[in-house]
Design a protein that fits this description.
By secondary structure, this protein is of the alpha/beta class. It is built from 6 helices and 4 strands, in the order βαβααβααβα.
């Protein structure tokens, strides 16, 4: 078997958006029969929550939708992620800038993309996954809906990405 294609999902603290996307993407990969060809990791650009579990509100929304959020442990993004991953997806422009700043070369910066580039409902000026951390349950539910929609489209495009 060849080396798996690796996708990194990155937000600020790795306790809400990127771990939610991580859980959903792994679920969708398994259902699509691609889990043996694609690996998923997530991290945050800030290290405040390293080693912690997912935010309890994010985990509750995932559980209520039938996902298992129990395995998540927060990690911090660093330069090594460029060598370890094929596609690096940022949840917002600030995360993207922080990731690009750590790229070993200018060419490596092109591998940093916005997660919602794969969202069929995203548009110019509306390509970020909003951070639900400061809000209530409705924000987490809205983020999950956005993540599921985006992930479904990403799964459809994976054969092209893997072939590149």
């Amino acid at each position: 078997m060849s080396t798996p294609y690796r996708i990194a999902l990155v937000c600020l603290g790795n306790i809400c958006r990127s771990p939610m996307a991580h859980v959903v993407l792994e679920d969708r990969l398994a259902k699509a029969g691609l889990d043996d060809r694609v690996e998923v990791v997530s991290s945050g650009t800030g290290g405040w929550h390293e080693g912690e579990a997912m935010d309890s509100r994010a985990a509750a929304v995932l559980r209520s939708a039938g996902y298992d959020p129990s395995r998540h442990v927060a990690r911090t993004f660093n330069t090594d992620w460029f060598a370890e991953n094929n596609l690096l997806l940022a949840m917002d422009a600030s995360n993207r800038a922080d990731m690009s700043d750590q790229a070993p070369t200018v060419a490596e910066q092109t591998r940093v993309r916005m997660f919602r580039e794969f969202d069929p409902e995203a548009s110019e000026g509306d390509d970020e996954v909003p951070d639900p951390w400061y809000g209530g349950d409705a924000g987490f539910k809205a983020v999950l809906t956005m993540i599921e929609r985006t992930t479904d489209n990403l799964i459809e495009q994976l054969p092209e990405l893997i072939a590149d």
